[in-house]
Amino acid sequence: MRRVVLAAIMAVAAGSAAAQDYPNKPITIVVPAAAGGPTDTISRVTAQAMSKVLGQQMLIENVGGAGGTLGTARVVRAAPDGYTLLIYHVGLATAATLYRQLPYDTKQAFAPVGLITDAPMTIIARSDFEPNTLSELVAYLKSREKTTIGNAGVGSAAHLCGMLFMSETKLQLTTVPYRGTGPMMNDLIGKQIDTGCDQATNTTGPILGKQIKAYAVTTKSRLKSLPDVPTADEAGLKGFELNIWHGIFAPKGTPPAIVDKLSNALKTALKEPDVMKRFNDISTTPVPENRATPNAAQSTLTSEIDRWAPIIKAAGQFAD
Ligand code: MLT
Q1: How far apart are CA 28 and CA 197, in angstroms?
Q2: How far is the CA of 202 from the centre of ligand 1 (A)?
């Protein structure tokens, strides 16, 4: 018994000693989606601002594929020393049900650091796609069999949004999966696929530049950055709403003092005027301070796993 207590005291002491000079080398942030997509963009803005606060480089490693589960597994297996972190979104919660063979238990696998932003989705199409409004799109899809919709794999935000669209409209589209919606966007702009549903973070520029068409945003009210794009509800899909939260997660066992340092750096970074502007320009909203915390991130992760599990099970849509 005394040995166990002693070991616990020594572990805590080692943790706080490690925390004191943390970080003393670059930190790797694993982004479980391809470079150039929304998760990548949000991660790069966040990492740049946090690295200024922490006085250390934060390097982005893109590990896309399998709806974010490959990159997530890489972080779960990493040493819990604060030098390997994950930035991901609601897909972390949905994968817990969609993938029945995950090598980790999502609710238990992390020492969450905090949430970062809330991002709306947009329903989009290639610039020369015939329908001009959401109701025209629905009518068009009813009479065509081979319309394609891109996504970032099963469990991605783009997949969830497309699934919701298909279930609301009772329509079936041909899904085209990518390693992230960065490459999907290239193909949509290049007119290789017909439609998509992606975070406004990734679509605001191409919509404003008229490289793609936008039918709706998935928020309650219109976005300041896209004032001409109606909400899905206004455009005819009553109650259609989807918000994509992003957060930072360290592997379970990371010393609490290190997690606190990271969470404090995140809170400071999110208040930087330049960060707020950069997020604003791409239609994503930094969370308030009380959500950039370990508790808020853990409770969001847990409640989102519980919220999506019955929906996914009822749809019978599993990834394996
Ligand atoms: C998603 O659909 O999950 C994301 O857009 C993936 C990405 O960031 O590329």
Answers
A1: 29
A2: 9
